[in-house]
Amino acid sequence: MSETSSETASETTFYRHVPRSLIGDYLRALFGLGITLTVLFSLDDKLSIVGGIFFILSLLFLAFALRTLRQQLLRVAVNDDGIFTKVFGTAALPWSKLSHVRLRFFGTRREHKSGSGGHMQLTLKGDGQKLSFDSTIEGFPDILWHAARAARHNGLGIDPSTAGNMLSLGIEPDKETRRPV
Predict the structure, then answer these.
(1) Is residue 137 domain-shared with residue 113, that is, in the same domain?
(2) 105 CB contacts (<8 Å, ≥6 apart)?
(3) If both were cysteines, with which of 47, 126, 145, 158 could 97 make a disulfide (CB 3.0 to 4.6 Å apart)?
(4) Number of domains present in the structure of the chain
(5) Structural domain of residue 67, as residue ranges?
(6) pLDDT above 80 for 112
(7) C-alpha torsion 28→29→34→36, nearest 10
(8) Per-residue confidence at 108, pLDDT binned at 50, 70, 90?
(9) Share of the chain above pLDDT 70, in %
(10) pLDDT tens per residue, range 20-45
(11) Cα 22–Cα 4–Cα 82 angle in degrees, nearest 5
(12) Is the pLDDT of residue 125 over 70?
């Protein structure tokens, strides 16, 4: 894969998270780990309730850091046949096997109405696979466009919340729309 975050070769498009888009998450994880571990190691009685709380908090920040690393390593390939991911292993979901599409918005109502904040998460299920994508990945609209097209082709019902979220991104769940550039 080249230095760019997306490329097209023989009608397969590749996407990934741009590392600079994850800097905030890495900084939050580092800050949280720094604070919790500093407090934990400065406690005289590490087995106290306070020690237990800070130990659990440090595990949560570590899990967040590992999740962010997973996002950075994620590679997604999309074509007319399906969607393919690679992180630590590979997963493939042929569009013909897509059985469930869900698009959720996370943020405040004001952010959703203004389109100026929050983020979305796309969940695709089928053929024994469950794939989830945050809207922070480059090419998210294209991934969603392919999923909406496959859902229409497969005759899947789209719940009202998912349909509304698709419409907010300019993707019509019930009829063909132009592929996002």
Answers:
(1) yes
(2) 112, 118, 119, 120, 165, 168
(3) 126
(4) 2
(5) 17-73
(6) no
(7) 100
(8) low
(9) 89
(10) 888 999 999 999 999 999 999 998 88
(11) 85
(12) yes
pLDDT of the residue at 75: 94
Residue 14: beta bridge partners? 7, 77
User: Do 86 and 56 share a domain, yes or no?
Assistant: no
Mean pLDDT of the region 117-146: 91
- 83 and 164: one domain? yes
Indicate if 41 and 65 belong to the same structural domain. yes
| Domain shared by 84 and 164, yes or no | yes
- Going across the sheet that includes 90-94, the strands are 7-9, 12-16, 75-78, 82-86, 90-94
Indicate the residue among 6, 41, 73 that finishes a domain: 73
Question: How many alpha carbons lie under 13 Å from residue 128 in its C-beta half-sphere?
Answer: 2
Helix (H) and strand (E) counts in the chain: 5, 8
